[in-house]
Write a structure and sequence with these properties.
alpha/beta, 7 strands, 13 helices, Rossmann fold, DNA polymerase, domain 1, 2 domains, binds S-adenosylmethionine, 42% helix, seven-stranded mixed sheet
Length: 293
C-alpha cells in the first residue's frame, strides 16, 4: 500500500484548541490518514483512549498504518452514528471531539474514485462505495431539475440549469461516466477552459455532487444538533474544520445555541500564509471550537 500524501490542516491550532491531557477520551470523527490523530494520541497517554471513525475503508487502512502501536481504536462508520459506535465500545460520553470535514488528498489522488478533475475512471465520489448511488448514476438517472437543484444548492453554481440540461440532453448517447467527461461538459457549457488561475471552473459542480451522493450536509446537521450535545461531557470540547461556506454556515448556526455551547472562537481560526503556501488545501479551512456547558 502506498503512503499517505495528505497533510493535516491547522494541526497546531487543533492541538491547542483541544487542550489535551493524559487520560482523556477523544473521538476523531473523520480520522482520514490519521494526520491529526497521530499527534493527539501521545498527548492523551497514559490512560487516554482515541477512537477514530471514517466512512472510507481505504482511509482507515492508511490510519491503521499511521497509528500502529498507539492506543487507538478504528471504526468504519459515519460520525453521525457516533452514539452507536460509543455504545459498541462500552462508552456513553467523551471528553474531546475533532471533525475535519471534506476530502483527503489521498482520496483526491485515487484516480479510480472520480473525486479529482483529471480522473479517467468512473465518476463515483462516494466515501463508502457500499452504500448509495455513484455520482455517474445520479447524472444518468435523475431528472434535470433535480440535477440543477443539487448544482445550485450544494455548489452555488450560477449556471446550474444550463449544465443540468446539457447533461440530460446528451446522456442517452453520451452519458457522463468519468470526471474528465464532467469537466468537458462544464467547459463546453460555460465556454471556459482551466487557465490555472484561481479555482477550476468545474470546482462547484464537483463539490455539489460529492455533497449530494454522500448526504454530507444531512449528516453534519444531524450530528451537530442531536448527537454531539448528547455525547460530549459537560466541560468537553469539540473542534470542527470546514472547507466551504455552506458547511461553515451549518456549524456556525449549530454552535450559536448558547444554552448548550460556550463558543471559544467568535471568529473562525484560519490558516497562516505560511501554511497556505505549504499546503494550498488549507486556504479555505475554517476552525470553530466550543465547550459543552
Ligand atoms: C479531510 S479528511 C481528514 C483528514 C485527517 N484529519 C488527517 O489529518 O489525516 C476527511 C475524511 O473524512 C471522511 N469522512 C467524510 N464524511 C464522513 C462522515 N460522515 N463520517 C466519517 N468520516 C467521513 C473522509 O472519508 C475523509 O477520510
Amino acid at each position: 500500500m502506498s503512503t499517505s500524501v495528505h497533510l493535516p490542516v491547522l494541526l497546531h491550532e487543533v492541538l491547542d484548541q483541544l487542550d489535551l491531557r493524559p487520560g482523556l477520551t477523544v473521538v476523531d470523527g473523520t480520522v482520514g490518514a490519521g494526520g491529526h490523530s497521530s499527534k493527539i494520541a501521545p498527548k492523551i497517554a497514559p490512560g487516554g483512549q482515541l477512537i477514530g471513525l471514517d466512512r472510507d475503508p481505504m482511509m482507515l487502512a492508511f490510519a491503521a498504518q499511521k497509528l500502529a502501536g498507539q492506543n487507538a481504536t478504528l471504526v468504519h462508520s459515519s460520525y453521525a452514528e457516533l452514539t452507536e459506535v460509543l455504545k459498541s465500545q462500552g462508552l456513553t460520553q467523551i471528553d474531546r471531539l475533532l471533525v475535519d470535514l471534506g476530502l483527503s488528498s489521498d482520496q483526491l489522488a485515487d484516480r479510480e474514485r472520480g473525486f479529482g478533475f483529471a480522473a479517467g475512471g468512473p465518476l463515483d465520489m462516494r466515501f463508502d462505495t457500499r452504500s448509495g448511488i455513484s455520482a455517474a448514476e445520479f447524472l444518468r438517472t435523475a431528472p434535470a431539475d433535480e440535477i440543477a437543484r443539487v448544482f445550485r444548492e450544494w455548489g452555488e453554481e450560477p449556471a446550474a440549469e444550463p449544465l443540468a440540461q446539457a447533461i440530460v440532453g446528451s446522456r442517452k448517447f453520451n452519458p457522463v461516466e468519468s470526471a474528465a467527461d464532467l469537466v468537458s461538459v462544464v467547459e463546453r457549457v460555460l465556454r471556459v477552459r482551466d487557465n490555472n488561475q484561481g479555482s477550476h471552473p468545474a470546482t462547484r459542480v464537483f463539490q455539489a455532487l460529492r455533497i449530494h451522493v454522500n448526504r454530507e450536509l444531512d449528516q453534519l446537521t444531524r450530528f451537530l444538533d442531536t448527537v454531539l450535545p448528547q455525547v460530549l461531557r459537560p466541560g468537553g470540547r469539540a473542534v470542527v474544520i470546514t472547507f466551504h461556506s455552506i458547511e461553515d454556515r451549518i456549524v456556525k448556526q449549530a454552535f450559536r445555541d448558547s444554552a448548550v455551547w460556550e463558543n471559544l472562537t467568535k471568529k473562525p481560526i484560519v490558516a497562516t500564509p505560511t501554511e497556505i503556501r505549504l499546503n494550498p488545501r488549507s486556504r479555505t479551512a475554517k476552525l470553530r471550537c466550543v465547550v459543552r456547558k
